[in-house]
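Need L-ascorbate oxidase homolog's 3D structure for a figure. Predict it.
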Amino acid sequence: MTLRLTFLVLCILSATTLIKAEDPYLFFTWNVSYGTISPLGVPQQGILINNEFPGPNINSTTNNNIVINVFNNLDEPLLFTWNGIQHRKNSWQDGMPGTNCPIQPGKNFTYHFQVKDQIGSYFYFPTTAFHRAVGGFGGLRVNSRLLIPVPFADPEDDFTVLIGDWYKSSHTELKKILDGGKSINRPDGIIINGKPGNGTDKDKPLFTMKPGKTYRYRICNVGIKTSLNFRIQGHSMKLVEMDGSHVVQNVYDALDIHVGQCLSVLVTADQTPKDYYMVASSRFLKEVYTATGVISYEGGSGPPSPQIPEGPTGIVYSLNQFRSFRWNLTASAARPNPQGSYHYGGINITRTIKIVNSASTVDGKLRYAINGVSHTDPETPMKLTEYYEAPKKDYEYNSIVDDPTPESTTKIVVKPNVLNATFRDFIEIIFVNNEKSIQTWHLDGYSFFAVAIEAGQWTPEKRKNYNLLDAVSRHTIQVYPGCWAAIMLTFDNAGMWNLRSTLWERHYLGQQLYFSVTSPARSLRDEYNVPDNVELCGIVKDLPKPPPYTI
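Structure prediction for L-ascorbate oxidase homolog:
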């Protein structure tokens, strides 16, 4: 009896330990619907989440499990992606048309992902059709665990600032323009947290600060086309985090934030107690668009000064600012060990891939391409086709070459663009922008080291100019006109991952591809099995589920 009792107690203790060891869960229910919004003072149809525009903030901590049950009340299929969340071993949750069948109207789907080994500022948005242009986006923050040191004191409060360009046209009107083979051209204005930002809402401050206190502002460019500059009237900003990495804490009066990028700054309320403008203005456009939002001091009085601080001009300012960003080598990230303990500069490059963006017409309609191929999504998400080993794939691998000739990028071919990548290879990607407008690129599933941006043409000799010590690890990088940018990363996250232009017109018209990163072991150590609730469609709809991966 004593032995049996002892065994029972041990079992209970073991079960209790397992329960305690599991990371916390956060549960959300989202009802996605249309609603009337007026970001620029003109009523238009927008996309709301639980009747909110922008959508609700997700406030999580490293390793939390996030469970979001999405009900699609739109009249079109819907998907969400989580910009910058790496989904380790789990591209099933990435929410791109190349990985997931969309949520049909009137249906629901539950996303379940873990913010594994990440910290920082991110956002989510819809990836289907042209929905992103009219809402459905919101902030997503990943806080550090209590036991992991953060390289700055806890702020008094933590604010999310979503800035972006905006069009007065509906998403269906914008999509119709693109489907007709034309560009949507320039935006109609800029918004801050969904507000008009034209001074008419000056009596309704976006944020309030206590004199003498320091606050964290997480600023994300959630727009679809325009790089922006952000600044706060009369206040300097100490940069502390960028795309999920702690950075060297330089102080700036203004910061360029390109489409898809997020950063965190510390702002101290050390000025005369009154109201001040935060300002977001367009970059690299002939006409400057500006939005303002009010920050109030608690107990202060007086409106903001009508003198709006001017934004920077030209590319040189932005390029020099990029070069001032440095990875904080001594700070911890999601784990206790310092960020700088990973010495990426000493790893041998096993593959170099040039990504050359271009624009042309196909059958009289505008298309954008990578190395001469303009991506189009097949009927069946490519990840599902690959996992189910469908006998008849509706795409081919490796339609582009790693080192394209100028001739090969001139003529555009429209078809799915998928590149095979060898698991755990250390890769160098060179983005080449021969066009006259800025480009911005994002890679799902990874962070990469942004080691260089320079003018002119890239050659192997340019590697001597790389920052191989403290380049910031991030997920989105800009490439200025007539310039190239170099990034380095290890393909150690098995799955199907989207490399895309964050400029949504270009993305929609083909400037994207997918990396297929497969582990030869077919092991749960490297990649999760397809979740039971994943919707099947296309050529895999009636196929039997393949044998599951095992350890």
